[in-house]
Amino acid sequence: MSKVDVLLGLQWGDEGKGKIVDVLTPKYDVIARFQGGPNAGHTLEFNGIKHVLRTIPSGIFHPEKLNVIGNGVLIEAAIFNDEISALREKGVEPTENLYISKKAHLILPTHRMLDAANEQAKGNAKIGSTLKGIGPAYTDKIARTGLRVGDILEFDFREKYELLKMQHMQTAKTLQFDIKKFRIDGMTLDQYEKRWMDSLDTLRSFKLINSEYFINRCLRGGKRVLAEGAQGSMLDIDFGSYPFVTSSSTITAGVCSGLGVPPSAIGKVMGITKAYCTRVGSGPFPTELFDETGKKLCDVGHEFGAVTGRPRRCGWIDIPALRYACMLNGVTHLIVTKPDVMNDFDEIKICTDYIIDDKEVDEIPFEYNEVEIKPRLQSFPGWKQDLSDFKKFKDLPLNLLNYLAEIEFQTGVKIMAVSISPDRKDVLFR
Ligand code: IMP
Ligand code: MG
After folding, report:
1. What global pTM score does this model have?
2. Superfamily of the domain at 105-203
3. How many Å lie between the centroid of ligand 1 and the Cα of residue 281?
4. What letters, b where the CB count within 10 A reaches 16 and e where it falls short, cover 418-428?
């Protein structure tokens, strides 16, 4: 019986998960997504080409590997269809090696409308949602009113669809949302619905399975399975900076419910963190920089959302948040990405603790969104060197190794690899 290794983000998303999964894929037989949906944008770069994946696991570029979209994931049919077309344009044919759980829930066009309606109704308290319908679709799942992938094979699918759509239209009216003015990719709701319905054929052309049986059979057969997380631990529905979170379990626990594997089947837990920190959308971010340094992190790090194009908020690495994420996930191995963004920094800082009301705090407070948090910062000299020619972890500049050693010391978890460029060849394993 083999185990499921887990790879997930320890911050607010965009830690570089897609790229690391792609690099790790040769060691695995099956790559599985367990939560989230097209709010994710996993960017991979190789041979000078850049790919962004939304719902599909990042193992898809390896034709001999199986990729599974688990029951915990949400699928928006039209976005999925676009994703498949983009892969085919690049010569990747995913029909044979992509399996989809029949229990994965569907995002309807009206879920996307409700996302926009909810955000509008919140006014200044906006979450900054990617507006892909994530919150409303998970709401229907929990309310037991959702539609699942398996339902598209049933004769009465359209009937069920219309019923749910009607409920959504009523909710939008209650929220005083202007349905007529609403657009998705420049299309009216009716136009987009047609595209979405047509896209169901693409979805039907894939292997729709009971993925929990499939994965457990793989494990019994000794196959190596990697669970690929989306978003980040600080966006987790339970433990993130609620309500400024996404609507799924982004932590290791989500692997069990999102794939149907028991906790005893979890193996290594690999947590990814950037060498600094970013966040898209609203919510607390104690180490955020509003100065030139923050702007530089954004510019040099190309910190713009892969899904929305929004500039990401940038700041120093946040150790209290990182320790919290390591605890919640049971991280056994750390992976650090993007130190190269700070190559010409004279000074690099780490937030070791929070100061709240003049008191030192090392826990994430319940009142995360309300209290004023001052980060206690420790300063490190920069390495002031281009990293592009480094081939071995141990040869990295001493100041960078010292910086990484401090992250290990603070979190109590060993770093297994560091990524020093967007390319898959530049991940240095220890
Ligand atoms: P939603 O999941 O689209 O509703 O967005 C909720 C919050 O999570 C917003 O602040 C988003 O910016 C953030 N978010 C969702 N998905 C991602 C992601 O893949 N990377 C980074 N932030 C994300
Ligand atoms: Mg992303």
Report:
1. 0.96
2. Adenylosuccinate Synthetase, subunit A, domain 2 (1.10.300.10)
3. 7
4. bbbbbbbebbb
